[in-house]
Amino acid sequence: MDSSENSRRSFLKNALLLSAATAVPTIWTKSNANPLSGAVNAGEKVNLACIGIGNQGGSDVMSLYNTGLANIVAFCDVDMGAPHTLKVLEKFPDVPRFQDFRKMFDKMGSKIEAVSVGVPDHSHFPIVMMAMGLGIHVYVEKPMARTYNEIELMMAAAKKHNKVVTQMGNQGHSEANYFQFKAWTEAGIIKDVTAITAHMNSARRWHGWDTNIKNFPPAQPIPGTLDWDIWQGVTQHHDYNKDFVNGQWRCWFDFGLGALGDWGAHIIDTAHQFLNLGLPYEVSMLKAEGHNSFFYPQSSTILFRFPERGNMPALDITWYDGVNNIPAVPKGYGVSELDPNIPPTSTGKIQPAKLNPGKIIYSKELTFKGGSHGSTLSIIPEEKAKEMASKLPEVPKSPSNHYANFLKACKGEEKTRSPFEIAGPLSQIFSLGVMAQKLNTKLLFDRETKKITNNSLANQLLVGLPPRKGWEQYYKV
Asked: What one-character-per-residue DSSP string does 420-460 give?
C-alpha cells in the first residue's frame, strides 16, 4: 500500500469519526474567539464581513447592505482585480480588503459579528468552520458544502456553537412559497404527498462540452490578480484553467454540485422541510446522458426515495435536468411560467426554457404545480382550484426577506428560516444525488447509520479525498 493510499484511508477513518462529533479546529481557542459573539445590541447595525464579492457573492453583498441592517467592515476575495469584483469595490472604496479569509479573521475577527460567504461550493466548508469557531454568525450560499461529511461537520459545529446564527442562501425560503406551503400543510391542504417531480431544464454552462474527455483541461497562466492556492481551498491540487473559475467551477464534480445543488435548494426546499423528508433511503440514476468522470451529464434523471414518516406516506422525488429532458406533466397543467423575481445569475437573467424551473406535487387527493424560489403553488387543473378556493387558509406575508431575516436573527429579533439544522439535510440530499451522478448507479443509504450499504466506493465518497496539506485543521476536533 503506497503512502497516498495510507493517507487517504487514515483521513477517511478520522473523518467518519468526526461526523458523529463536533468539529472545532484546534487552532482556534477561547482567547481569539469573537468577544462580540451572540446577539447584536438592539438598534445597532451588524458588523458584516463579506467573503466573495463578485457574481452571486456581490449580489449578496448588496442585498445585505440594502436591508439597512448591516455595517460592512471587511471584504475578502481571492481576486480583487477581477472585473466582477469592481462594482462592489467602487461602491465601498474605504472598506478593508483581503485575499485570504484566514488573514482577515486573524486581523479583524474581534470587529466582525457576521460574515457572508458567496464563494464556490468547495470553499464554503473551511470558511464557515473557522467563522463558527470564532463565534461569528454565518450566511452561506447554497448548497452548504460539497461533501456529505463536510455538511455533517458544519451541522455539528453549529449545534455546539449554539449562539452563532446560521442561514443558507436559498432566498425563496423567506418568500411567499415558504409561508404558503407552511399554511397549506398545517391546514391539511397539502397532505398525503406520494410523489414530486422537480425540474430544471434551462441550459447549463457545461452543455455541449465534449463528454469523451479523458483529462482536466490543460494548465494556463494564472492571472496576476488571482490567488490560485487559496481558491483551491481544501481540494486536491489542480492546474489553473479559465474553465475552473468565474462560475465555471459549478460544471465540475471536484468543485460544485451541478444543476441539482444550484437549483434544488430553490425548488424542493419547502417540500423537504414541511413534509419532514429528512434523508432518502435510495438514490437511483434513471438517466445520465453524456456521463463522464469529470463534469456533469448533459441530462440527468435522478430518483430519490423517502420512507413513511409518522402518518405521512412514502414519497418519491424525481429530478430532471437537461434542455430536452422534459418530464411529463399532468392533464390541466397549463402554462409553465417563469417567476420574474428570480435573481439574475452571473451570466444574466435566467432564460425561459421548454419547461421553466419548478415542481409538480402529487398527493392522494390534489395535484399542485409551482415554480422556483419564492413562487407560490397553484392547484391543478383550474376547475379543481376553483372548487378549493373557499377552503384555502389565509397566508401571512413575510415579515422580512432572507437577508433581513439573517441580520435580524443576529440582533436577536427573529430566527433564521434556513439554519443549518434545516438546510443541512437538504444539502446532503444534493451531495448524495451528485454521488449517484458521478458513479452513474443506484445507492442504498441507511438513514440510521448514515452509511451507503451497497457500494463501498460511494460510502468512501461520503467523506471524499483528504484535504490538501495545510488545510487539515478544519476537519480536526
From this structure: HHHHHHHHHHHHHHHHHHHHTSEEEEETTTTEESS-HHHHH
Which residue type occupies 81?
A: G
Residue-by-residue pLDDT tens, the chain, 477 positions: 444 455 555 555 545 444 433 333 444 443 445 545 555 665 689 999 999 999 999 999 999 999 999 999 999 999 999 998 998 999 999 999 999 999 999 999 999 999 999 999 999 999 999 999 999 999 999 999 999 999 999 999 999 999 999 999 999 999 999 999 999 999 999 999 999 999 999 999 999 999 999 999 999 999 999 999 999 999 999 999 999 999 999 999 999 999 999 999 999 999 999 999 999 999 999 999 999 999 999 999 999 999 999 999 999 999 999 999 999 999 999 877 766 667 666 566 666 678 999 999 999 999 999 999 999 999 999 999 999 999 999 999 999 999 999 999 999 999 999 999 999 999 999 999 999 999 999 999 999 999 999 999 999 999 999 999 999 999 874
d(CA 19, CA 278) in angstroms, rounded, equals 17
Of 416, 460, 467, nearest to 435 (Cα)?
460
Segment 106-112 long-range contacts (CB within 8 Å, at least 24 positions apart):
106/32, 108/49, 108/73, 108/74, 109/32, 109/34, 109/134, 109/136, 110/34, 110/35, 110/36, 111/36, 111/47, 111/73, 111/74, 112/34, 112/36, 112/47, 112/48, 112/49, 112/73, 112/74, 112/136
| Distance between CA atoms of residues 277 and 185, nearest Å | 14
Planar angle of CA 84, 85, 91, nearest 5 degrees = 120
CA distances in angstroms from 21 to 149, 154, 427, listed in the order given: 11, 10, 19
Model confidence, pTM:
0.91
Distance CA 48, CA 26 (A): 25
| CB-based burial, 359-376: b 16+ in 10 Å, e otherwise | bbbbbeebbbbbbbbbbb
Distances in Å between the alpha carbon of 125 and those of 26, 157, 408? 16, 11, 24
